[in-house]
């Protein structure tokens, strides 16, 4: 089999743009992903100087060609509408003569735009919530539904925290409502008119962390916005920065965040003077940070800076008396959203909902109530229909089937469920899911095919 055919097929199949230029800057290779990323066909660009299509200052390839130094995981902006993460290196022949440069560009434009849209939407929502609170006899903590002692204890602590600027750490399992609690603390504080900037530390590619959190000065690197750009920390000036999944913050960024907390000053990339800040920090995690400290994955000095006040969000298992109220609240919410009648839950259904362990907590209950609203017939749903349509008590119903499985089958079943959970959590982002699973993207793709997981 001709190895060139194999190599060409591999390069054509790769999702990332792959570009090769010669020492005279003429393009030698331009794969299909490069066509998709930069909307320039191979017939137009191959054999021509790449500088005919891009400005010199926007080409990281020229920097590598000039310095003969490789670049790893560098955030780059070759065009106004394109954000990429680049790995680039010089190419040498057997005589150690430079014969070109290769660049592999991963398009992260959608991630950057999504972050910007989320920030804009968050600001608009904050303003809308502020107006609602002014017109209704509600408090910011009204969204934390439930009357259980466990939740009320959390709300009492959160109210006290809101009256101060103390750095706060919110602990709790995934799906317990940590961001809702952080938003309530902000809305009840003296900073309510300032911005509330949420940052999911588990959803930002590591190469983008520094520019996203700290921003950069103009002219800092090739492709940067000409006027520079403020990071999320700077955008929160006068308000609150919410760092969700703080345990996912890379060690390098932990050092920089600690400096901000100590000095109340943020340093953009390329800035040696820094900018004075007035930001309230709230962090949240579902991980055991003390364990991460012992494993040298989380800095102890940062932990103690964040853990001034600790707020614990109880799991749904610890507040089962709130389940009927929460279920009905979500049913009414989705019935209004989809313009459908509010389904009635039979008493037997309520009993079983309370008995269920809810590993996904409120998020899992909310998703179930949405499905019930859409699929319920005759205005109500009984237990038989619930188990038939939603498989709620999977662990109880399938107990015998799981017991009869071989160890290998049970392992594969657990693997499949874990992959599905992470793909749902990160909106189908396979790179992030693979990172959380501790496997490569290639391995994840193989397992998706093996388990016939629908990723659409």
TrEMBL record:
Signal peptide: none annotated. It holds the Pfam family HTH_8. CDD domains: AAA (cd00009), PAS (cd00130). Keywords: ATP-binding, DNA-binding, Nucleotide-binding, Transcription, Transcription regulation. InterPro entries: AAA+_ATPase, AAA_lid_NorR, Homeodomain-like_sf, HTH_Fis, P-loop_NTPase, PAS, PAS-like_dom_sf, Sigma_54_int. GO terms for molecular function: ATP binding; sequence-specific DNA binding. Residues 144-374 form the Sigma-54 factor interaction domain. Residues 3-58 form the PAS domain. GO terms for biological process: regulation of DNA-templated transcription. It comes from the Bacteria. NCBIfam families: sensory_box. This is PAS domain S-box-containing protein. It comes from Virgibacillus chiguensis. The lineage of its organism: Bacteria, Bacillati, Bacillota, Bacilli, Bacillales.
């Amino acid at each position: 089999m001709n190895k060139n055919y194999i190599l060409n097929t591999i390069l054509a199949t790769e999702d990332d743009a792959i570009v090769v230029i010669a020492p005279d800057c003429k393009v030698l290779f331009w794969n299909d992903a490069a066509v998709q990323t930069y909307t320039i066909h191979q017939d137009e660009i191959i054999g021509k100087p790449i500088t005919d299509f891009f400005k010199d200052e926007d080409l990281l390839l020229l920097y590598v060609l000039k310095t003969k130094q490789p670049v790893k995981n560098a955030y780059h902006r070759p065009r106004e509408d394109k954000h990429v993460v680049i790995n680039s290196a010089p190419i040498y022949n057997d005589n150690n003569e430079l014969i070109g440069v290769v660049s592999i560009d991963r398009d992260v434009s959608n991630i950057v735009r999504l972050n910007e849209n989320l920030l804009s939407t968050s600001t608009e929502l904050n303003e809308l919530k502020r107006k609602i609170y002014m017109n209704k006899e509600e408090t910011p903590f009204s969204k934390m539904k439930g009357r259980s002692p466990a939740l009320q204890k959390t709300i009492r602590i959160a109210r006290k925290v809101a009256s101060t600027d103390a750095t706060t750490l919110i602990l709790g399992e995934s799906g317990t409502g940590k961001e809702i609690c952080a938003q309530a603390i902000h809305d009840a504080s003296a900073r309510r008119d300032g911005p509330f900037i949420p940052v999911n530390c588990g959803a930002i590619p590591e190469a983008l962390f520094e520019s996203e959190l700290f921003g950069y000065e103009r002219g800092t690197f090739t492709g940067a916005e000409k006027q520079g750009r403020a990071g999320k920390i700077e955008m929160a000036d006068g308000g609150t920065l919410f760092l969700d999944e703080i345990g996912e913050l890379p060690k390098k960024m932990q050092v920089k965040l600690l400096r901000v907390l100590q000095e109340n000053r943020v340093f953009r990339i390329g800035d040696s003077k820094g900018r004075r800040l007035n930001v309230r920090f709230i962090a949240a995690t579902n991980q055991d940070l003390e364990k991460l400290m012992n494993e040298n994955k989380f800095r102890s000095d940062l932990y103690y800076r964040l853990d001034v006040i600790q707020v614990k969000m109880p799991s749904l298992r610890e507040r089962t008396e709130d389940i009927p109220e929460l279920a009905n609240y979500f049913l009414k919410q989705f019935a209004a959203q989809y313009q459908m009648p509010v389904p009635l839950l039979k008493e037997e259904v309520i009993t079983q909902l309370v008995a269920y362990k809810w590993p996904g907590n409120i998020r899992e209950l909310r998703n179930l109530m949405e499905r019930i609203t859409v699929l319920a017939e005759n205005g109500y749903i009984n237990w038989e229909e619930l188990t038939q349509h939603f498989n709620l008590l999977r662990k109880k119903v399938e107990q015998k089937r799981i017991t009869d499985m071989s160890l290998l089958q049970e392992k594969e079943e657990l693997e499949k469920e874990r992959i599905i959970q992470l793909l749902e959590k990160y909106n189908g982002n396979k790179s992030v899911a693979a990172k959380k699973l501790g496997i490569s993207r290639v391995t994840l793709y193989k397992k998706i095919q093996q388990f016939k997981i629908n990723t659409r």
